[in-house]
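Exercise 3.2. Students should predict the tertiary structure of the chain below and write it as structure tokens, then compare their answer with the key that follows.

Predict this chain's 3D structure.
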Amino acid sequence: MSLKFYHPRFWPTWLGVGILRVLILLPWPWQMSIGKVIGLLIYKVLSSRRKISCINLEIAFPDLDAKSLKELNRQHFISMGQSSLESAIGWWGSDKTIKKYAHIEGFEHLEASLEKNNIIILGAHFMCLEVGGRIMAQKMPLHSTYRPHQNELIEYLVAVQRNKKYGKTIPKRNIREMIKSVKSGAPTWYATDQNYRGKGSINVPFFGIDAPSNPGTSRLAKMTGAQIVPAICVRLNNSKDSRKGYLLKFLPPLENFPSKDFYEDTKRLNHIIEEFIKDYPEQYLWTHKRYKHYADENRDFYAEYLSSNSDSPCQG
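Answer key:
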């Protein structure tokens, strides 16, 4: 580890990491209660993120009334607070703890596909990503793509733990390494469901509204001949399921994918993710500007939405 990480500017990060290392020693229900408090605090303090999340939810669920929308947004931030503890569980939690709270469905779809094909796991940005990675890595080595963190120390610590616990991690921009991983036969987790304005970006409907999207999954499948296996990991700590812990669920591999049309492929993948989200809307990452795009002279969709919806609960 570089000596620069002992510089005073990294001390707050070290303090936060130390607190998380202690908190994961607590019973899981206590961790979730602490996470709830953290989430409610974030909800109160980060008003800009609260508004962004609210706008996204209002777009995705137009039939919700103001009261229901506000409560869903509040639950989303609670889930976000709990995810901070879950990241620590994924990085430093014991194998015994992971197994205790893991519930896996549809793993046979992945196993059957791996016998004959290279596999890309279609992921999405739900709150339990790190735990999901650990659960799957206990079944087989996992290669996963990720977006590097801006904090150098966090990036270093996370990379060390992911490489140790998963098998291999690949920065999203390293396309050559991604192709190498897929062709090696290792199941490779890849998520392209966030706002994307890089090379090749296309506007594809997400909950009925065009959003800048990455057709990378379709392109990668075409280059490697891989099958796509959709997967999701969500938290099971509410009335939707009597079990406690985490559900890692796999769907059957997609047929007739990729097609000759990257737009239609990406639209199809967005629809699959939408169906996942509808079951667990509070656990999806809504705090990024999914619908912001630059198609029309740096148009700011979020500013327009707020100014044109004076009755929206997102105004407050």
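Discussion points: The mean pLDDT is 88. The beta strands are 102-105, 119-122, 142-146, 167-171, 188-190, 202-206, 209-213, 227-236, 245-250.
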